[in-house]
């Protein structure tokens, strides 16, 4: 009886060790991956990513699934997981490459929308890392627009719309940042050029009211009162509840000027279009 129990214990221990090795943990000797099934390798990648938090190691398993079992269902899953895992590890260029491969191989797959969204996200998540270089922001906007237009009924389209608006606002914020710098330094023409971009190209963002106020400041500094008054007129019509309206009102009335459209500048055209609806 004792010997039988001992043999059963040894056998149980061996089985447990084998199971741990099959799950990717506990074994000091790595089992050759080409001896495992596609599912086993894939699940090792999942375990390494989710339980151990090692995206770089997980990538190896997902890539091996694709290499060893290139036409299998698990290869398809492994490819989208490569894109996801690269993104998790902030390896954005490789994330885009893997997502693009997925779209090339499986354009009609139900995960295609997610692959496209990951590509957009890889640009979007770099926006705050690029300083004043707005190239990636424009690429993010383009990629997000593609998600919205190509997969309008997907859950990713809704998220893409929100991120598109934020990225668009980010571009306007960068123009404002540079314009304020020029204004502070007394480079009024350069400042006006930046604020003009916000008013003309980013009217739907949260920065338009301030851009109009800064135009009032810059044009008054240059002595261009018609333009300053027109900027004030647009501000007063559309953003009267904004604190920037109060600031512009004080600036203009303090010089005996009113907030009304005057002259025939680019701001007058904006006024006619936005306020009076005259687009021609």
TrEMBL record:
This is Outer membrane protein assembly factor BamD. The lineage of its organism: Bacteria, Pseudomonadati, Pseudomonadota, Alphaproteobacteria, Rhodobacterales. Residues 37-231 form the Outer membrane lipoprotein BamD-like domain. One of its GO terms (biological process) is protein insertion into membrane. InterPro entries: BamD, BamD-like, TPR-like_helical_dom_sf. Part of the outer membrane protein assembly complex, which is involved in assembly and insertion of beta-barrel proteins into the outer membrane. It is found in: Cell outer membrane. Keywords: Cell outer membrane, Membrane, Signal. Pfam families: YfiO. GO terms for cellular component: cell outer membrane. Part of the Bam complex. It comes from the Bacteria. Belongs to the BamD family. The gene is bamD.
């Amino acid at each position: 009886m004792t010997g039988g129990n001992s043999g059963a214990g040894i056998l149980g221990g061996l089985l447990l060790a084998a199971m741990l090795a099959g799950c990717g943990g506990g074994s000091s000797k790595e089992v050759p991956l080409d001896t495992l099934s596609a599912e086993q390798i894939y699940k090792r990648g999942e375990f390494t990513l989710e339980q151990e938090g090692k995206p770089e190691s997980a990538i190896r398993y997902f890539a091996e699934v694709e290499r060893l079992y290139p036409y299998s269902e698990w290869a398809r899953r492994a490819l989208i997981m490569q894109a996801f895992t690269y993104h998790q590890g902030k390896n954005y260029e490789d994330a885009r490459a893997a997502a693009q491969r997925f779209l090339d191989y499986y354009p009609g797959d139900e995960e295609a929308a997610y692959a496209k969204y990951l590509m957009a996200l890889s640009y979007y998540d770099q926006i705050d890392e690029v300083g004043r270089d707005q190239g990636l922001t424009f690429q993010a906007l383009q990629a997000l627009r593609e998600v919205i237009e190509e997969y309008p009924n997907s859950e990713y389209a809704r998220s893409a719309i929100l991120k598109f608006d934020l990225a668009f606002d980010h571009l306007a914020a960068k123009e404002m940042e540079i314009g304020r710098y020029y204004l502070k330094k007394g480079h009024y023409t350069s400042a006006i050029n930046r604020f003009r971009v916000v008013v003309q190209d980013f009217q739907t963002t949260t920065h338009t009211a301030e851009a109009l106020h800064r135009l009032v400041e810059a044009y008054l500094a240059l002595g261009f009162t018609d333009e300053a008054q027109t900027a004030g007129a647009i501000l007063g019509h559309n953003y009267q509840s904004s604190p920037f309206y109060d600031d512009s009102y004080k600036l203009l009335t303090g010089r005996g000027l009113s907030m009304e459209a005057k002259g025939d500048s680019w701001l007058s055209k904006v006024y006619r279009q936005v306020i009076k609806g005259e687009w021609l």
